[in-house]
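Retro notes, item 3 of 5
We never archived the inputs for the zinc ion complex last cycle. Fixing that now. Sequence and ligand:
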Amino acid sequence: MSIKTELTSWLQALGDLVYPKPPVCTLCNKSIYQAYFLEYSVENSANPKTQDDANARTEDNASARAYSHRRHQRLTSKEKRYLGKTRIELADHLCSLCYQGLKLITAPFCHKCGRTMTNIKLDGRSKGTDDPQVCQDCIQPSVQHRAFKYARAAAEYNDAIQELIHQYKYRGQRNLVEPLQIIMCNVFELHFKKQPFRIETLIPVPLHENRLAERGFNQALQISKHISNKHKIPIADILERTEYTEKQSKKSKVERTASLEHAFKVKNHNSAEQRHAGMVKAKSVLLIDDIYTTGTTVDACAGVLKEAGAKEVYVLTLAR
Ligand SMILES: [Zn+2]
Ligand SMILES: [Zn+2]
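Structure as it came back at the time:
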């Protein structure tokens, strides 16, 4: 580096110190500080057209507030810590309005798939199962025999988290990787620390090599890294996606299951990969991905890992 460029970068750093650029929200592009003021004006600018409308809205607000209050009161101290740490982590990336759009998952959630239990019926009992903590989807006979033990996720799959993941995966917002890694670590600590079992290996869900070449990175591998560093759990990138499947969202559930059944296998080409395979045998492993939609992808991967000798497979995703 020449003296001139070094001097320029020093001056730039000094300038940033004196006049720091206000952080901008990743999702709405507004200055993060400005949004704090907007939050108040949005609440006050709601203009009901009729008196009935106004009454309905007040009732809606009141019941929504009462509901969130009840939910908040039920939070365990571990969950409060999870919410607090995650808020701090995202403070420089999301304004408070967009942050409110992000629905972090706390109890009650489905004990099988990890989905939050507010927008679905909680009636496992009526369907003849004794477990009221399992959602409507998970009591279907077709998904009774999942290869994984259970899945957990950081946030409900909605527009906010979808956009955040989209910005990271397709819009080149690589600076999002750090907060996403830390959120994954926070949710890992919430659900997988101080358990009767210990997670011994992290396994990212693989991309097909064509897609990996196109994108340049595997998001599942990237978001596993902080858990690995902080908790000293090795990452074994041993799965391989052998079939180049089309975008899953365009297909029906049946087609999706069929297309994924043989889409994954354990890599076994060189000695490093064979050593990695040893990290699965008789171990409790955690499969990591960004999104859990129907559970078909993680189930297919878990099946392969079970065949390779894994004792138990758990799943952790950013969104569910
Ligand atoms: Zn925003
Ligand atoms: Zn479920």
